[in-house]
Design a protein that fits this description.
16 helices; alpha/beta; six-stranded mixed β-sheet; Nitrilase/N-carbamoyl-D-aminoacid amidohydrolase; seven-stranded mixed β-sheet; 36% helix; 20 strands; Rossmann fold; 567 residues; 2 domains
Length: 567
């Protein structure tokens, strides 16, 4: 039957477990879609309960609340009259084998649930562990929807990621999109919660356009937006025609309602939520600007959803803390950020000056608290107890831990969340101090390599249209300033070398021989890899790391701490 009306892609930011808030977002966006002439509104994967709910799915009352919330949304109401709604929810399956839950999409129309589609392909790689929580559907579901006059193929996230003509090595035997096309679907609806990683938005578009063209069926793809714990969801929802043309596209990192027609015509993009994004000029470094947006969104949602109202950042005068402060100020507003400089006997004058200038440029609150009296007291007491001075490394780490104590004391006193400032390169090789500079509730740039840190910091200045971060911060040699004349390259290879080795090993998972073939001395490669392996115990105790790469430290990289694997 011919399609009627328009299709709305409702790209919303959900909070795990906030059934009332998520349902309110669904009702509000549906009402706006209906007012814009849409006859079908599509929402993300598990939009009703938020994604990822993890072990909350083990709680019977959580699943009961989901069922009640879905029933409440399905009741006849003015906001949903004349429009079909597709939304993700966790579906309890009484009598089914463990885990007894489906990852499902419900089609609501005419005051009732008219169809349910269940996820067929359950990912168990990287950050995903869906066979722990869900049963896999043994077939794909298509259903007729009266309002849009279409037979809808109901699919969920991974179900569109297995086109055998697109992927060289597909992960699964089935292709749910092919099944839905054979079942006569006039539109494949894919509700998704696909986390962000660099280059992934472009990959998704290539995949979806190839799938639509290959199967000869249009695809309405709706992705979650927002941050939940370490994951950032970029949105980027799109409506793709059967010939592979992108008819409508939602913005990245913003809640939005995109209303479009399969017949073509200009789509309408309506902002949602309380933080509509303002149009910006094209960025000089598009990838760095994209990563910056991901980190800003991740910080904003982590702080907000965890119940904090402000943040605290230790300012060293270096590039890492400067970028972290910029991200916090954009995410939360300058008034919600406290920058704290903590100089020691080894701190340079330019570091103190650059920290203070950064705080002025950002408009954040600023305090300077010298650690010298505390540092001296620690050293004196420990020397008396040991009968000798501490070794060089221990003396350095005392300084870092005093700083961590100060930041956490201010956190307790003010209620602000400490944002740790270490980058991915440091976390990788253990160039960081447990309970010192690793202290904090969120590792903002822990998945950003040092060389990328400089690019993202430049993007922050470009976005502001002025030098938030002082130029000297970019040009001076990186240093922890824990002893006289110290620079990072005393202990580490040059960062361009280190980051290439780390990317090859951590993200591309290449063996030693392949990394050496990239032009690195074998001794250097093996030394770096030994440092990575030996530092696993530190990373296991790090704050959650906002994920922006294909392989971040944290839940997506699960290695043993105690083992005999060596390089």
């Amino acid at each position: 039957m011919p399609p009627s009306g328009r299709i709305a892609l409702a790209q919303i930011d959900t909070t795990v477990g906030d059934f009332d808030g998520n349902a309110a977002r669904i009702r509000d966006a549906t009402a706006r879609a209906r007012a814009a002439g849409a006859t079908l509104a599509v929402f993300p994967e598990l939009a009703l309960c938020g994604y990822p709910p993890r072990d909350l799915l083990d709680l019977p009352e959580f699943l009961d609340r989901a069922a009640r919330a879905l029933a409440e949304l399905a009741r006849p109401a003015d906001w949903s009259r004349g429009i079909a709604v597709a939304l993700g929810f966790p579906e309890a399956a009484p009598g089914a084998p463990p885990p007894g839950v489906y990852n499902s999409v419900a089609l609501l129309e005419g005051g009732r649930v008219t169809a349910i589609g269940r996820k067929s392909l359950l990912p168990t790689y990287d950050v995903f562990d869906e066979t722990r929580y869900f049963l896999a559907a043994d077939r794909s579901s298509a259903a007729d929807a009266a309002a849009p006059g279409l037979r809808l193929g109901l699919s969920i996230c991974e179900d569109v990621w297995n086109d055998k003509r697109f992927w060289d090595r597909p992960r699964y035997a089935r292709d749910p999109v092919a099944e839905l096309a054979r079942d006569g679907a006039g539109l494949v609806v894919n509700v998704s919660a696909s986390p962000y990683a660099v280059h992934k938005p472009a990959l998704r578009e290539r995949m979806l356009t190839a799938s639509a063209r290959g199967h000869g069926v249009p695809i309405a793809y709706v992705n979650q937006v927002g941050g939940n714990d370490a994951l950032v969801f970029d949105g980027g929802s799109m409506l793709v025609a059967a010939d592979g043309r992108v008819l409508a596209r939602a913005p990245l990192f913003q809640e939005a309602l995109v209303v479009a027609d399969l017949a073509g015509g200009a789509p309408e993009v309506l902002p949602l939520g309380d933080r509509p994004g303002a149009p910006r000029a094209p960025a000089p470094d598009a990838l760095a600007d994209e990563v910056l947006s991901a980190l800003v969104l991740g910080v904003r949602d982590y702080v907000r959803k965890c119940g904090f109202r402000s943040s605290i950042v230790g300012l060293s005068g270096g590039i890492d803390s400067a970028l972290t402060a910029c991200i916090a100020a954009e995410a939360l507003g300058p008034g919600a950020v406290l920058g704290v400089a903590m100089p020691s006997r080894y701190s340079s004058g330019h570091s103190r000056e650059d920290a203070a200038e950064l705080a002025r440029n950002l408009g954040v609150s600023f305090r300077e608290i010298s650690i010298e009296p505390m540092h001296a007291a620690f050293l004196a007491q420990l020397e008396a107890a040991e009968g000798r001075p501490l070794c060089d490394l221990a003396e350095q780490n005392v300084q870092a831990r005093v700083r961590g104590q100060i930041l956490m004391a201010l956190s307790n006193d003010t209620g602000g969340l400490v944002l740790s400032t270490g980058n991915k390169s440091e976390l990788a090789v253990g160039y960081c101090t447990l309970y010192g500079d690793m202290a904090g509730g969120l590792a903002v740039i822990g998945d950003v390599a040092k060389t990328l840190v400089y690019r993202v910091a430049r993007a922050a200045n470009a976005r502001a249209g002025r030098a938030l971060i002082p130029e000297r911060t970019f040009t001076k040699p990186p240093s922890a300033e824990l002893k006289p004349g110290q620079v990072d390259q005393d202990s580490l290879p040059p960062y361009d070398v280190l980051d290439d080795i780390l990317a090859a090993y951590v993200e591309e998972r290449l063996p030693v021989e392949a990394i050496v073939a990239r032009g690195h001395p074998e001794a250097t490669v093996r030394r770096v890899l030994r440092m990575v392996v030996a530092s696993e115990y530190k990373r296991r105790q790090a704050a959650p790391v906002l994920k922006v790469s294909e392989k971040a430290f944290g839940e997506g990289r699960r290695l043993p701490i105690a083992h005999g694997w060596r390089y």
